[in-house]
Amino acid sequence: MNKENILKELNFKAIRSSGAGGQHVNKTSSKIELTFDLENSPSLSDNEKELLKTKLSSKLTKENNLILFCEESRSQHRNKDLAIKRFLELLRVNLIRPKKRRPTKPSKSSVRKNAEKKKRTSVKKALRKKPGLD
Fold first, then answer.
1. pLDDT in tens, 8-66
2. Annotated Gene Ontology MF terms (predicted)?
């Protein structure tokens, strides 16, 4: 994954933001919409694309575009920087391949210790009972 090449592929669009800000919010377009075309990205390998498609399936559109919005700040430039940071972090986290789980068995000594512990507990509880009238 080459960050510089991926950043060149990003498309940005400024939209009017909602929320607090008075008349200023009605006049300026400070909300940023970041779009990344996952399918046609030359910067990612086929394996990386498949991994991202599976992990980000809920965030992708039908055309495999990733869309992120940022409207935290009243500044368009700050929102753009925040959107880029989120996008790169999203890629970094989702490109990590999980380790395969190797099933393990308990050791012979731990099985023996558990059996002895159960035996001692059962004897202790048996001694608490009232003697039977046989």
1. 999 999 988 876 667 777 778 889 999 999 988 898 899 999 999 999 989 899 998 99
2. peptidyl-tRNA hydrolase activity; ribosome binding; translation release factor activity
Phi, psi of 8 (to 5 degrees): -70, -25
Grouping H, G, I as helix, E, B as strand and the rest as coil, residue 107 is coil
3-94 folds as Double Stranded RNA Binding Domain (3.30.160)
70 touches 35 (CB < 8 A): no
Instruction: Please report, for the chain, the start and end positions of each structural domain, with discontinuous segments joined by +.
Output: 3-94
The amino acid that residue 65 corresponds to is: N
Helix, strand, coil percent values for the chain (each to nearest 5): 45, 15, 40
